[in-house]
């Protein structure tokens, strides 16, 4: 193909962030916020945005990986657009890497090769996260809801919950710093950390059961317990705690950070008939996204 376009979704981790680094399960969902990549053949090698060559970026690294594997020697010009805020735990870099790899796959192979895209996007994510768990790229690629472990990968699951509120605390953070903080906690508190891991696994099973019956009250309580564990290992923040309190005062069932923490976003559950009015209350203090869950994964787009 001379030109192609794809898009990929952002994500929210509903339960289990950070513990997934230690090969414990996490429940994740793709969201309707998306990154879109358009690309067309360029007369010079490399990846370009206008007259600027793109280097050391998730998009360029993912595309270069696909080109290397396909033996493709031409360059491409990109147009990147995204509705996913960056550095707040919603998988923006992964969605860009996945969409970039998907577009490169269409240009070189005429189809989307999912395995190639997964490998290429993983290489792109290393630019940002060095040693990513793979949960962000897998969710952006496959979409829907999933149970993810580092050793077993992404297992699709049904999440009957249709919408969730995402609160942006306005504070960005670096995932690597938060991962390091958890590792330091683990090294200093090995016995307690092992108990937290065990409880987290139990909590995931309880959450899966609550999702099956769509028991929002129970899910909310489990979210608050998950938030308590994340606070204990040192990845909450004053902004996150304020957002959780405001969400609870506004009438949500529960709230917790999503992603690496230290800032970023908080997710919260509410009845569908009340979610918009609750969103308006919270928006007096924070930016809020009323977000659809179980969104499509990587898909080809019209140009």
What order do the helices and strands come in, and which of them pair?
Blueprint: E1 3-15, E2 26-42, E3 47-49, E4 52-53, H1 58-70, E5 75-82, H2 92-109, H3 114-129, H4 135-142, E6 145-149, E7 153-157, E8 163-168, H5 175-188, H6 190-213, H7 216-232, H8 238-249, E9 254-258, E10 265-269, H9 275-282, E11 287-292, E12 299-300
What does this structure look like?
This protein is an alpha+beta fold and 303 residues long. Helices cover 43% and strands 25% of the residues. It folds into 2 domains: 3-159, Ribosomal Protein S5, domain 2 (2-Layer Sandwich); 163-292, Alpha-Beta Plaits (2-Layer Sandwich). The protein has 9 helices and 12 strands. The strands form 2 sheets. Strands 1, 2, 3, 4, 5, 6, 7 and 12 form an 8-stranded mixed beta sheet that branches. Strand 9 and strand 10 (265-269) form a beta hairpin. The longest helix has 24 residues, at 190-213.
Shape: globular
Strand fraction equals 25-35%
Rg over C-alpha atoms, rounded to the nearest angstrom: 19 Å
| Mean pLDDT over the full residue set | 95
CATH topology of the largest domain: Ribosomal Protein S5, domain 2
Number of helices: 9
SSE order, as H and E? EEEEHEHHHEEEHHHHEEHEE
CATH class of the largest domain: Alpha Beta
Largest sheet: 8 strands, mixed
Q: Count up the domains.
A: 2
Q: Portion of residues in helices?
A: 40-55%
Would you tell me the structural class of the helices and strands? alpha+beta
**What is the oligomeric state here?**
single chain
Distance between the termini: 12 Å
**Low-confidence regions:** none
- Tell me the CATH architecture of the largest domain: 2-Layer Sandwich
In total, how many beta strands? Answer: 12
């Amino acid at each position: 193909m001379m030109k192609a376009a794809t898009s990929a979704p952002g994500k929210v981790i509903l339960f289990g962030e950070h513990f997934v680094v230690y090969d414990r399960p996490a429940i994740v969902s793709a969201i309707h916020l998306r990154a879109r990549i358009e690309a067309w053949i360029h007369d010079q090698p490399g990846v370009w945005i206008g007259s600027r060559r793109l280097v050391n970026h998730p998009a360029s690294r993912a595309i270069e990986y696909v080109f290397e594997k396909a033996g493709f020697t031409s360059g491409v010009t990109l147009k990147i657009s995204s509705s996913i805020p960056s550095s707040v735990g919603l998988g923006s870099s992964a969605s860009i890497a996945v969409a970039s790899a998907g577009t490169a796959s269409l240009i070189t192979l005429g189809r989307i090769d999912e395995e190639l895209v997964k490998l290429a996007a993983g290489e792109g994510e290393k630019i940002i996260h060095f040693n990513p768990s793979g949960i962000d790229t897998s969710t952006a690629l496959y979409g829907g809801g999933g149970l993810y472990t580092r050793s077993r990968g992404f297992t699709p699951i049904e999440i009957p919950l249709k919408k969730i509120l995402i609160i942006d605390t306005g504070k960005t953070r670096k995932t690597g710093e938060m991962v390091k903080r958890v590792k330091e906690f683990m090294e200093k508190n090995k016995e307690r950390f092992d108990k937290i891991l065990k409880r987290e696994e139990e909590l995931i099973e309880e959450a899966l059961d609550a999702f099956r019956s769509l028991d929002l009250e129970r899910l909310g309580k489990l979210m608050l317990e998950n938030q308590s564990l994340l606070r204990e290992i040192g990845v909450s923040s004053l902004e996150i705690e304020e957002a959780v309190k405001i969400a609870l005062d506004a009438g949500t069932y529960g709230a917790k950070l999503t992603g690496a923490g230290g800032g970023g976003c908080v997710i919260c559950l509410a009845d569908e008939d009340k979610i918009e009015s609750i969103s308006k209350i919270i928006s007096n203090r924070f930016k809020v996204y009323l977000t659809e869950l179980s969104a499509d994964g990587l898909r080809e787009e019209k140009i």
